[in-house]
Each structure stands twice: as C-alpha cells, then as structure tokens.
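1st attempt posting a full record on here, be nice pls
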Amino acid sequence: MTQELKDQIAVVTGAARGIGAAISQQLASMGATVLLAARDQSKLREVQSQIQSAGGTAHIAQLDLLDESSILSLADTLKARHNSRCDILVNNAGIGLLGKPLTELTPTDWDTLMGTNLRGPYLMIRALAPLMIAANYGHIINISSLAGRNPLPNGAAYSASKWALNGLTYSVAEELRPHNIRVSVVAPGSVDTGFGRGEPGNPRKIQPTDIAHVVATLVTQAPQSFISEVLVRPTQKP
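the predicted structure (as tokens):
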C-alpha cells in the first residue's frame, strides 16, 4: 500500500463490480477511506473484504441513484461519521439498455437510463460538492464513454446520456474551479466487464484496472493543473 491519499475520504458509485470495484480497490490501496456505494449489498461486502484483506479501509453505503433521499442519506453519513469530508467523488454507476433502436425503447426505460446515468451524477454533485466547497478542496470524476463522442446505433439513449454527462462535467468544472475543486471526465471504449453485450474475459478490451489507474493519476495531479478529459482506447480493437 502507498499513502498518497492518506486521510482522504472517497465515494465511488457502482462500486459493487467492474470499473467501480477496481477504482475502489485502487483508491484504498493509496490510503483513502472508500465508501462503496451501490444497491447490491452482498457484492459490496465482497469488494469490502478484498480491500480489507489488502490492508485498506472501506465502508458500505446503500445507494439508489434513482432515489434522491438515498443520496441525501449518504451525504448525512459523511457529515456524521466522516467529519463532513468528501475529498474524492467518482460517479461511475451507469446502465446501458443497449441493443434496441430508439423507437423500441420505452419511455420508462428512457427515464431509468437518464435517471441513473445523468440525474444520478447531478444529484451526487449537488449533495456532496458543498462539502468540498467548505473544505476548499476536492476531486469529482465522472465515468463517461466514447459513446458520448460518437454515434451508437441501437444505443442512442445511452449515447445521449453520456454526451450530456460530458457537457455537465465541462460546465460544472468551471463553476467549481474557484473552490479548488477539479472535475474530470474519463471516457473509455469497450471495457472487459460484461456491460451491455458480451461476457467478461476478453484480454483485448480495456480492463477495469486500466480505468482505475487513470483515476489514480487524476487525483494525484500537481495542484497547479488538472486533466479535464481522458479518452481511453484499447491498443488493439476487440
């Protein structure tokens, strides 16, 4: 373990598996106390156990991004148990609903996707950025996708949510810069998690640990600069 992030509090959404689990493990290995936020408590306990076995510190936080009260409860936990601290927020949780043309996507599915991929990060920033503003310090990292820069047939809603998340990131970064808060977006291509279509186990795809290493770089940048956007592509096309 290293100690670059010693005494820092990190919140990672979608921490139960895939990219979120890898980011959580990476931040904990750097000395941060990580709040593992997701709905799947059994999977969160597995990630927590892995972090603790490696000597890190992690706590489980029940979170439903479609429920604003759940997000406010997480903010209350930070205030009560972690001295009103949130040094790092990683908005990673997302859903795809891929494989259908837009005309076959129901309004309910649209609302669920946008609620998770866009409204969720907005509510998380709205709830937790004030803690960073009070401390005059913080990092917010939104996990987007290359689909937020390119057309995605049979994934138009997902693509739209990520285009919007990119715009949100660039704009809120300008709002929070005067408070010494750095806001970045990470946009990977196909990650080997089984997200959307296919099964994990393709070594040609980007690995979750690759994204975790990017996040580690972002949160340890020298104070006079920040990386606003990172695009991550596989070396060879899957």
